[in-house]
Design goal:
The structure holds two protein chains of two kinds.
Chain A: H1 5-16, H2 19-45, H3 49-63, H4 67-89, H5 102-128, H6 130-138, H7 143-173, H8 185-196, H9 199-228, H10 230-233, H11 240-246
Helix pairs in contact in A: 1-8, 1-9, 2-3, 2-5, 3-5, 4-5, 5-7, 6-7, 7-9, 8-9
Chain B: E1 2-11, E2 14-24, E3 29-33, H1 40-47, E4 55-60, E5 63-66, H2 72-81, E6 82-85, H3 97-108, H4 113-126, H5 142-155, E7 160-164, H6 172-187, E8 192-195, H7 199-205, E9 208-213, E10 216-221, H8 223-228, H9 233-242
Parallel strand pairs in B: 3-8, 3-9, 6-7, 7-8
Antiparallel strand pairs in B: 1-2, 1-4, 4-5, 9-10
Helix pairs in contact in B: 3-4, 3-5, 4-5, 5-6
The chains are: A mainly alpha, B alpha/beta.
Bound molecules: adenosine-5'-triphosphate and magnesium ion (MG).
Chain lengths: 250, 250
């Protein structure tokens, strides 16, 4: 078997045109999911009974079903459902089937990323330890002030590696958007490949684009971490901060 | 100045405080002794409302309240009059030594920043940390961290400071520096309640010693009475175990 290098190079540059869509899917999903996930994590930690149950149910449902399945479900169910809502319930003449399908992609990815991030935030908030919250209360701060000034800044720092993982996971799963006819990197390359059955070349191209994107994300997070960890950077001993942090569990 | 009457607290079925009463006058240094699990920590935490006591009264100067029906406003009033020093320091990891001390002043007490920094530096000077203003907790030894904890407590100029085993997480060679600071505070007339296993501190610094066991106050008196002529057999047993050369006058 021989690779069609000319096709491969051409398709590579064509696929690059899909990067903005891929990045847009990733970024907007993150921006929408993160705040929702944060309040879900908080709701669970502050032991809001009913809310906590609902959130747990939601998280296990999302985590217990394959993304592909969620896409298949939503993509075949949601348009019809929306159409029914708009036409029969609201009585509008708006054509739901004209909506950009990227909307469905956003819905699926937001649902997933929110579930993932809510767990990430929850465990991050827990690593800060209850002791610092108590201290804040004894010196007269309100719970809200303690969260904003003490707990959250530390939680965000300790969550960074997991947020990075979640972002990379999300970016990779956006490749499934082709199932909803969204023209991202994967979709563009696949369409090209279909003309002359050059699938292997196209897949290698896709592979390469994602590797570059994921490496870039890791780099960005490394830089953020370096900046955000100023308060742990110059520990007296190696791993000193980590030790101090874990101590609260003893 | 501070009086606790008949405080009760249970965790589920486990009754931890079974009607403890305690009276503290201005300038008193009250040391609470007792075996592990006797409810010492729970008592201190209840006074600062870190635990919600089930019954009992608290009288603090002109504030008179019942634990079971206490308002947020009263809690915040009493917290403003008290400070808490924790066994495991509980410093804010994302703040420097100085910020740890000034945080409560600026955020909770709304002092202007310059004023807070001035007070904060004075408090840190007092505990011998003039060289460590800008160090993060992870860069400080346990003894230094606990001294920051004490500086944070004295900075808010509380009427009373509650110490929960402030030296028991420290290496033996670091205990002295913390006890030294506490002795200094006692000499200046600071009112304190100290839970500790440091018998020398109790003997030298306390003007009252309270012995707790099984959620009750078994016996209380001056250090002299308690260490040389304890009346109760349980007190003697405890002292014999903890002071190998304990020898009481019958
Ligand atoms: N948050 C909690 N939930 C359930 N039980 C608790 C809790 N905190 C304390 N207890 C229980 O209350 C009892 C008294 O605990 P407390 O910490 O007040 O004892 P202590 O006298 O401070 O002991 P030590 O000298 O070991 O610190 C123990 O039996 C403990 O298991
Ligand atoms: Mg204790």
């Amino acid at each position: 078997m021989e690779l069609n290098t000319k096709f491969m190079i051409e398709t590579f540059f064509d696929a690059l045109a899909g990067i903005p869509v891929t990045l847009k899917l990733t970024l907007i999903t993150l921006l929408v999911s993160a705040p929702i996930a944060f309040f879900m994590a908080l709701g669970k930690i502050e032991k809001r009974k009913i809310a906590g149950k609902l959130i747990s149910g939601y998280v296990s449902f999302i985590r217990g079903t394959p993304v592909v399945l969620q896409i298949l479900f939503l993509y075949s169910l949601l348009p019809t459902l929306l159409n029914y809502l708009v036409k029969d319930v609201l009585g509008l003449s708006f054509n739901v089937f004209q909506l950009d399908t990227i909307l469905y992609a956003y819905i699926v990815f937001v649902l997933n990323t929110t579930a993932v991030l809510s767990e990430v935030f929850r465990s991050a908030l827990l690593t800060v330890g209850h002791g610092q919250m108590e201290t804040a209360l004894t010196i007269g701060m309100t719970k809200r002030q303690a969260y904003i000034r003490i707990i959250i800044p530390q939680a965000v720092v300790s969550a960074l590696p997991n947020i990075c993982n979640a972002t990379i996971g999300l970016l990779k799963s956006t490749s499934l958007a082709f199932m909803m006819s969204v023209q991202d990197v994967t979709a563009i390359a696949k369409v090209k490949a279909a003309y002359g059955y050059n699938y292997i070349e196209a897949y290698l191209d896709i592979c390469f684009v994602y590797i570059v994107l994921c490496s870039a994300i890791q780099l960005v997070f490394k830089l953020i971490e370096r900046y955000a960890c100023a308060y742990k950077k110059s520990s007296r001993t190696k791993g000193g901060a980590l030790y101090a942090r874990n101590k609260e569990y003893i | 100045m501070l009086e606790i009457k008949n405080i009760y607290k249970a965790f589920g079925n486990n009754e931890v405080l079974k009607g403890v009463s305690l009276k503290v006058e201005k300038g008193d240094v009250v040391v609470i002794l007792g075996p592990s699990g006797s409810g010492k920590t729970t008592l201190l935490r209840s006074i600062d409302f870190l635990e919600k006591a089930d019954a009992g009264e608290i009288i603090f100067d002109d504030i008179h309240a019942e634990f079971a029906r206490i308002s947020k406003k009263t809690i915040s009033q009493i917290r403003k009059k008290t400070a808490f020093v924790f066994q495991n320091y509980n410093l804010f990891h994302n703040k420097t030594a100085l910020q740890n001390v000034t945080e409560g002043l600026i955020i909770a007490r709304k002092l202007p920043k310059e004023k807070a920094i001035e007070i904060g530096k004075r408090a840190l000077d007092k505990v011998g940390l003039s060289e460590r203003y800008d160090y993060y907790p992870s860069q400080l030894s346990g003894g230094q961290q606990q001294r920051v904890g004490i500086a944070r407590a004295i900075a808010v100029n509380p009427d009373i400071i509650l110490f929960d085993e402030p030296t028991s997480a420290l290496d033996p060679e670091l205990i002295g520096e913390v006890l030294g600071v506490m002795k200094e505070l006692a000499k200046e007339g600071t009112t304190m309640i100290v839970v500790t296993h440091e018998m020398h501190f109790a003997q030298d610094v306390a003007n009252r010693v309270v012995f707790m066991d099984g959620g009750r106050v078994v016996e209380e008196g001056t250090p002299d009475e308690m260490f040389s002529r304890p009346k109760e057999e349980r007190t003697r047993q405890f002292l014999r175990r903890i002071l190998p050369d304990f020898d009481y006058v019958i």
